[in-house]
């Protein structure tokens, strides 16, 4: 019985991943490599849709790879590679660009949000066609499922439309993927402003927990997390977004259910919850950081792993592209 294939990508982030990236995505990737034929890409081509510094991008990309390995991705159990090392991504994206309506691409809400922030002159055509490149990423591997957060649903819908359009015009070529909206994934909010998700583009850096920061710095962020003026520790995202966020993180890091945590903290104030969570995070992050650092300290080994991953990815991607080119008329 062939395992279902999943594809997922993550952008390199300067500095390191944040706790939202880990609890909302990376952790699920590690679990899925046991049950699925998993293809994971560090999507560095996507990273240049906004201006980049070359040295910083290269460093962030290697850091992303080291962190994914540090988090438990195993090159023997999954295919981990850099998007830029598999030229078929850009090649298929061009073919798909020529199948995508201008209006269809212009309806992508993520583009509308991001381009509004960049302004017309600052918005690149690359940012506009970003979802088409994403479709190419997925379709090259004939992925059955795409583990993503809820915010990616529209892009997966476009991917499905493009696959069906190509298949309809040129004959059966692509597996039409389903979104695999991550069920166990915790949505993590900013520690200083729990009304917004923890994000690298947040305004207050104090609310973001970076995985590679000195643990002392992160512990301080947990201890000074914004809560509310009440005293009861209860999971209630509407009334108590700050406390609920802390309970979600606590639960995700320990596997203890939120109801059980409410019981455990009955009669206690917010202080002990924050302090305990700071300690739990510190205990979790220490081995993660040291494993990640080992890969960063051995660039030859990291290169070797990424080269092998790219080779495995290309062996699948090249087959899909050859079929597409032939059917397209090349
Ligand atoms: P950011 O919002 O910091 O720009 P990305 O958009 O690059 O992060 O997200 C990378 C991955 O991490 C995606 O799968 C996304 O769903 C997940 N993710 C990002 N932020 C969070 C969060 N606060 N909570 C849960 N998952 C998150
Ligand atoms: Na984002």
UniProtKB/TrEMBL annotation:
Q: Which UniProt keywords apply?
A: Aminoacyl-tRNA synthetase, ATP-binding, Cytoplasm, Ligase, Nucleotide-binding, Protein biosynthesis
Q: Where is the protein localized?
A: Cytoplasm
Q: Where does L-tryptophan bind?
A: 137
What would be an example GO MF term here? tryptophan-tRNA ligase activity
Question: Which residues does the record give as ATP binding sites?
Answer: 11-13, 20-21, 149-151, 188, 197-201
Q: Which transformation does this protein catalyse, written as a reaction?
A: tRNA(Trp) + L-tryptophan + ATP = L-tryptophyl-tRNA(Trp) + AMP + diphosphate + H(+)
Reported EC number(s) for this entry are 6.1.1.2
CDD domains, alphabetized: TrpRS_core
Would you identify the family this protein belongs to, as annotated?
A: Belongs to the class-I aminoacyl-tRNA synthetase family.
NCBIfam families from the entry? Answer: trpS
Q: How does it assemble?
A: Homodimer.
Report what the protein is called: Tryptophan--tRNA ligase
Task: Give the organism, scientific name.
Answer: Streptomyces johnsoniae
């Amino acid at each position: 019985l062939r395992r279902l294939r999943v594809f997922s990508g993550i952008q390199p982030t300067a500095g390191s991943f944040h706790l939202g990236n880990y609890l909302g995505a990376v952790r699920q990737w590690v679990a899925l490599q046991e049950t699925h034929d998993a293809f994971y890409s560090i999507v560095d081509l996507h990273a240049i849709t906004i201006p980049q510094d070359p040295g910083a991008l290269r460093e962030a990309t290697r850091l992303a790879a080291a962190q994914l390995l540090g988090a438990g991705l195993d090159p023997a159990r999954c295919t981990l590679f850099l998007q830029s090392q598999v030229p078929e991504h850009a090649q298929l994206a061009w073919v798909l660009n020529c199948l995508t309506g201008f209006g269809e691409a212009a309806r992508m809400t993520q583009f509308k949000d991001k381009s509004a922030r960049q302004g017309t002159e600052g918005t690149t055509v690359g940012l506009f066609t970003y979802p088409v490149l994403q479709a190419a990423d997925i379709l090259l591997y004939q992925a059955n499922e795409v583990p993503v957060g809820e915010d990616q649903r529209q892009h997966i819908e476009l991917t499905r439309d493009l696959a069906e359009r190509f298949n309809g015009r040129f004959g059966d070529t692509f597996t039409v993927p389903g979104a695999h909206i991550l069920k166990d994934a915790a949505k993590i909010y900013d520690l200083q402003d729990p009304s917004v998700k923890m994000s690298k583009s947040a305004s207050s850096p104090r609310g973001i927990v970076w995985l590679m920061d000195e643990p002392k710095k992160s512990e301080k962020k947990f201890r000074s997390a914004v809560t509310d003026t009440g005293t009861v520790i209860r999971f209630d995202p509407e009334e108590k977004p700050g406390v609920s966020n802390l309970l979600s993180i606590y639960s995700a890091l320990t596997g203890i259910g939120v109801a059980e945590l409410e019981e455990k903290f009955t009669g206690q104030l917010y202080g002990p919850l924050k302090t305990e969570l700071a300690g739990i995070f510190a205990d979790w992050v220490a081995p993660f950081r040291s494993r990640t650092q080992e890969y960063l300290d051995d660039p030859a080994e990291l290169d070797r792993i990424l080269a092998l991953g790219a080779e495995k990815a290309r062996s699948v991607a090249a087959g899909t592209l050859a079929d597409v080119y032939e059917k397209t008329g090349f």
